[in-house]
Every structure is written in C-alpha cells, then in structure tokens.
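Please, structure for the following, as tokens.
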Amino acid sequence: TGAASPGGPPPGGGGRRPAGHAAVELLITESRTATEESRYRTAQDAADRAVAGAEQLGDAVLLVRAIAQQQLALRMAGDYTGALVCCTRILAMAEDPATREALSSEAAAATIARAYMYWVTSARTDARADLRELLAMLDTAERWLISTGHGHWRPGVLSERSDIHRALGDREQALACAQEALARYAPGTPGFSLSVYRWSVGRLLSEAGRHQEAEGYLQAVLDDPDSPRLDQVTANVWLAYNAVDNGRPADAARAAAGAVEL
C-alpha cells in the first residue's frame, strides 16, 4: 500500500529552538526530499544522522519523528526488515514510562499510529510472518487508537486488515474492511492516500467479478488530479486486469499502455 508523510510539522509552540534541534529538522527534511526523489542512499544517510542527533539531544518527540523518517527511507528502498526495526522502536517508546508522557501530543500520536500501520506493512513482506498474528497486532493498534481518542484514524488500520484478509483468502471480509476504510477516510489523518483506498476497493471488486463496479473505483483514481503517480499506475494495472477478465482486450491494452507511460 501506499506511503504517508512520517512526521508533519514539529509540535509545540512558537519559541525558538536550540541550534541542535534545527539541524535535526533540516536532516529530516533532507531525507524526506531525497526519498521523494528516489535518492534512497542519501535519504537513509540523512535520516541516520537525524536519529543520532535527536538521541544526543534527548528529545523524545524529535527522536520519533527522525526514526519515522528513517523507516520511510528504508521501506521505500525495499529494506522492510530495517523498517520493521524502526517501527518497533517507536512503539516501544510509546509504551516506555520514561518517554510515554512526552509523546502524548497529537503530532507524536500520529507518528505512533503510522508506526503500527507500517509495522504490519513491513512484517507482511516476510514469508515467515503469521498473518493471523498480524491481525492481532492490528487489534492492538485499534485499541490504542480508541484509548487515546483517535478512533477516527482507523482507515489505515482497516486497509492493512483488508490486505491480510485478502492474503488469507477471505475476500468478503477483505472487501468489507476496504469499503469501511474508504468510507471513513478523512484528509490529513494518519494512513494512506484516498487513491489507495479507492483502488483497494476496485481491486477486490474486480477479483469478485464485479467488473463494472470495479471500473468506477479504479477510474476515480485516474480522474483525481491529486492521486500520486504510483497509485495511478496501480489503478491502470488493475483496470487492465479487469478488462481482460471482462473480455475487453482493447480496453485492457489501453490501460496497460497508460501504466507504462506513467
């Protein structure tokens, strides 16, 4: 599934921060920019330095933001094991009495919520992962969201749950979770882009043989100018599969060509 911004703007008020904090902020920004430009080695180096700097400063909020950017750089480069380690560290800090109170802000809570989601995303890439144990992890994530007053941030968790049910062969439950994730989507909340939720529903409808319904969700991704390019590629790929299954080879060829052009 797709990628989300790991940290957002720094929390807190308007006072000037020490130079060390500014340096770490710059490194986080450098890493984020390099990630967006697919310069993953540069992104990882900057994120590693940001984490080291935040550790020296002893700032828990800044540290989880740096670790979140570190996991994003690793995950986008295909290092899911490294990303899993980063997510595990963030979740441990959220439970540690020494740092839990410092991480009670909305910005920190958003980072923790993403860590739950990307922990599951990263763990799913390991063929040894027990998918039902990952569902249990998502249960933990939902309890945490509700207990901290962030139940409205559930779409990302629901999307991960949908993917696991799909992998388990429970397509009906997968579709129900994907549809609920899309229905609950709200801009600016931790999770995935609107286009991810749309093509996820479209993919499952296509696999269920509901081709016309599927096409509507997939086409909506392409019609939305805010859809990230990778999501447009994914939508085109599934439009091609959908058209093949529906006996429309010419439409399939057009959609496949659109994916290649992107």
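Residues 19-36 form the longest helix (18 residues). Residues 198 and 220 are 7 Å apart (CA to CA).
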